Amino acid sequence: MFYREAGDFKTSYAADNQTFPIAFDRYRYYIVLLIGLGVIPFVITDYWANAILIPFLIYAIAAIGLNILTGYCGQVSLGTGGFMAVGAFTSYKLMTAFPGLDMVTITLLSGAMTAMVGVAFGLPSLRIKGFYLAVATLAAQFFLVWLFNKVPWFYNYSASGQISAPERTLFGIAVTGPNAEAWAKYLFCFAFVFVLAWIARNLTRGSIGRQWMAIRDMDIAAEIIGVNPLKAKLTAFAVSSFYVGISGALLFTVYLGAAEVGEAYGIIKSFLVLFMIIIGGLGSIFGAFAGAAFMVILPVALRNFFAGSLGWDPALATHFEFVIVGALIMFFLIVEPHGLARLWSLAKEKLRLWPFPH
Amino acid sequence: MPDQLIFAMEVTINGLLNGVMYALVALGFVLIFKASGIFNYAQGVMALFAAMTLVGIQQGRVPFGHLINEIFGTDVHYFGWEVPALAAILLTVVVMLAFAVLVQKFVFKHLVGQEPIILFMATIGLAYFLEGVSDLMWGSEIRNMDVGLPQGINDAIDAATFEIFGYGFFIDNLDISAAIIAAILVGGLIAFAQYTKQGRAMRAVADDHQAALSVGIKLNYVWVLVWTLAGIVALVAGIMWGSKSGVQFSLSLIALKALPVLMLGGFTSIPGAIVGGLIIGMGEALFEFSIGPMIGGATENWFAYVLALVFLVFRPQGLFGEKIIERV
Q1: Residues of B in contact with A319 (CB under 8 A)
Q2: How far apart are CA B91 and CA B104, in angstroms?
Q3: N or C: at which end does chain A have fewer Cβ atoms within 10 angstroms?
Q4: Which of B39, B126, B140 lies at the smallest CB-CB distance from A131?
């Protein structure tokens, strides 16, 4: 009823190209923005910020990044954790070496640094494909973590080998360090998510995004119709690593505050982000959000259910988490390889015809 | 002979024996990959699960004991008997058979014909699932495994090398028995594939699914068979690694180490898995010995992957793999 276009009355190219052609979608998007900017910052508590909202926003950036590489360009990467570590350590070095630099610049520079590292490790993708490449990216994962662990320059020769984020302000308000308030951290992350998601959405709609998808669907055919695989694959690696690097930087500076590289950026993190995009939906920006939300909320919900409501040992809740996550991955791949995002768009298709489906 | 050279020889031998262990895990990968095109990431967790099950049965633990206690408020941990090692191994094989049937019935039957990368991701899901089940069934503590394999330094080699070089090599008995068992296992697998009806069916399926189907080979049966074999290989690998360093979560990470082994040897070749394992085992031991001290040590964490990465750029199909031909 309310969810449909009443005919095709577009009179300009701008109207034809808009992201949300259906009014209901457009209003929903504005409402989500309004709630995100106008309501949540005023009611946010430390628990909600630290348990759900901030990790969700940060992982959403990483998931968008990996989705660009894996979902849009078809290059599976298991090195996400390592690339996040590059972002984190770049931001750490910048924060300690240039105390005057503001956080936005630091975070963007961390992303740029990660993009360069990503391109370097993306070069083999021109020769090797599929899960051969996935294993090759494992080299990045293990090598980078080892590097940050063994070269003391990266952690400023601190005795514990840990890095910890000093307090930095933006417009006079602390966004990192122990004194930063929940709402400030939240808004800082929200701004990044908003801008990056907007860019990603438009990149994937444009010519570069179409090149990525052509490479994903069949690289040889894409090459024949004039897509340059070198350019397409390396830009995918660069953009993806940029996003992942920013996410890693934010995870360290804003969320964790202090990090030990093997623990915070290990192979587990690579899989976590990969699961987000599988469950959320490969090749969909909305899917990255859905998957990030799902994987952030699931452990919290399970812990609350098993440990809180049933009063079980928390260790059991962790074990169940493994079982449930694993089962869900298999379930989604069997039933709906395109994840939550596909279910969502199916629901939308149904809504268009409702209540008269024939 | 200079000391450094003698040390290097010892490191090489130990590296080779370690490589046998990698090859054992890689073997399980090759079996499944050849027959069904599934790249089974869960192989390492299967080794963990098999080893946990073996220890659990041997010690007479109650499966899901922790869970049962939490739900019903009881306090059961042990049945109160101990199963001899051989019987426990046979029982574990039965468990792995059941696992193979279930995996085939509930997961991979529904994924036939999907892209390889989807299958790969499904096995990552399977790995998580199985790890959770293993923790729920037997707990997540480190367990000691003892199935009666000889342990400790091999005195004969120690004495013989002392005689020749004036320095006794430290070679673990366990590593030697692992190498012997691995050799027997590979011989057995090759004999099985060559001389039995089931083995022939397996090779036919590996060659061409549709042709095998058209001459009346049951694909489902062959796949269950292959998963069972992979389960048995996982059990052997689990026993070896478990006896060496205790049965614990890190066991499942050796699966990752098997990946560069496979890339080096080629995904479709059993001899490739063995040779790849030996090269990786020896290479990382020597690299750690010669270059490691200069750059901070612990290089075995990444050396294998970087070696495989560099190697792949020059020869994408691996040493013994079939040439990759792409058609549009």
Answers
A1: 132, 135-136, 140
A2: 20
A3: C
A4: B39
What is the SS3 assignment for A255-323? Answer: HHCEECHHHHCCHHHHHHHHHHHHHHCCCCHHHHHHHHHHHHHHHHHHHHHHHHHCCCCHHHHHHHHHH
| CA–CA gap between residue A254 and residue A248 (Å, rounded) | 10
Give, for B299, the enclosing helix (H) or strand (E): none
Question: For chain B, what is the mean pLDDT?
Answer: 79
Residues A180, A183, A185, A188: what is their CA dihedral angle, to the nearest 10 degrees? -130
Q: Which residue of B has its CA nearest to A128?
A: B316
- Helix, strand, coil share (%) of chain A residues, nearest 5: 75, 0, 25
Residue A211 pLDDT > 80: yes
Q: What is the pLDDT of residue A111?
A: 92
Closest-CA residue of A relative to B126 is A326
What CA–CA distance (Å, rounded) separates B208 from A122? 33
Sorted by where each starts, the structural domains of chain A and their CATH numbers stand as: 20-353 (1.10.3470)
Spatial distance between the Cα atoms of A170 and A181, rounded to a whole number of angstroms? 12
* A132 contact B CB<8A: yes
* Interface test mutation site (partner A, options B287, B300, B302, B327, max chain A beta carbons within 10 A): B302
Q: What is the C-alpha to C-alpha distance for residues A62 and A81, in angstroms, rounded to an integer?
A: 10
Asked whether the predicted pLDDT for residue A273 surpasses 70, the reply is yes
- Coil vs helix vs strand at A169: strand
Among B248, B61, B103, B66, CA closest to A318:
B66
* Integer Cα distance of A336 and A344 in angstroms: 11
**Do A321 and B328 lie within an 8 Å CB cutoff?**
no
Other CB atoms within 10 A of residue B45 CB: 28
Q: Is the Cβ of A138 closer than 8 Å to some Cβ of chain B?
A: yes
- Residue ranges of chain B whose pLDDT lies below 70: 1-2, 147-149, 151-154, 157-158, 161, 165-168, 292, 296-298, 321-328
Beta pairing partners, B78 = B61
The token pair that represents B54 in the structure block: 């073996």
Among B68, B119, B128, B287, which would you mutate to test the A interface (most chain A Cβ atoms within 10 Å of its Cβ)?
B128
Choose the closest CB to A316 out of B67, B130, B299. B67
Q: Which domains does chain B have, with CATH numbers?
A: 3-314 (1.10.3470)
Q: How far is CA B217 from the centre of its chain?
A: 28
* Degrees to nearest 5, angle at CA B13 with B11 and B15: 65
Q: Cα(A123)–Cα(B20) distance, rounded to whole angstroms?
A: 32
